[in-house]
Write a structure and sequence with these properties.
The chain has 6 helices and no strands. The protein is mostly helical and about 140 residues long.
Length: about 140
């Protein structure tokens, strides 16, 4: 495992540097996992609504009227969920690479996640705690 403290100044990292490094990696993977789950949800929603529309249209001739509505609704909701999920994946990958822009993106996403009860709230609090802590700020300031 490569710690940022060793890479930056050649000295062994302190316990605080080790802990913040671990917290950043855990937060990164949580955002990647939540983003992947959201992406799968968006794709699944598109597929399910399309399937329901096709199955309904096959059994009832009047259901052909609802097929375009279900297709458009499924596509719109799926794309909306995909758009909301992709920034989390991008932030997670950026955090794993210790990119300074990923810290800013994670702070914004964490603040927005506070409204997403219950799991988003937990992720948002954890993300804000890690990214706004003195050690977290210092870690990304050293890399800039």
């Amino acid at each position: 495992m490569i710690f940022v403290g060793r890479v930056l100044n050649g000295s062994p990292p302190t316990i605080e540097e080790d802990l913040v490094d671990i917290h950043v990696k855990v937060l990164a993977w949580l955002y990647i996992i939540f983003g992947a789950l959201g992406t799968l949800t968006g794709l699944g929603l598109m597929a399910v609504l399309s399937f329901i529309g096709i199955a309904g249209a096959a059994s009832d001739p009047d259901a052909w009227l609802a097929l375009p509505i279900l297709g458009i609704t499924g596509a719109a909701l799926g794309v909306f969920i995909l758009i909301l999920s992709l920034p989390g994946i991008i932030a997670g990958v950026g955090l794993l690479k210790y990119r300074p822009w990923a810290r800013i993106l994670t702070i914004v996403l964490s603040a927005l996640n506070l409204m997403n009860i219950p799991f988003g709230t937990i992720l948002g609090i954890y993300g804000l705690w890690v990214m706004l802590s003195d050690d977290g700020s210092r870690l990304f300031a050293q890399l800039n």
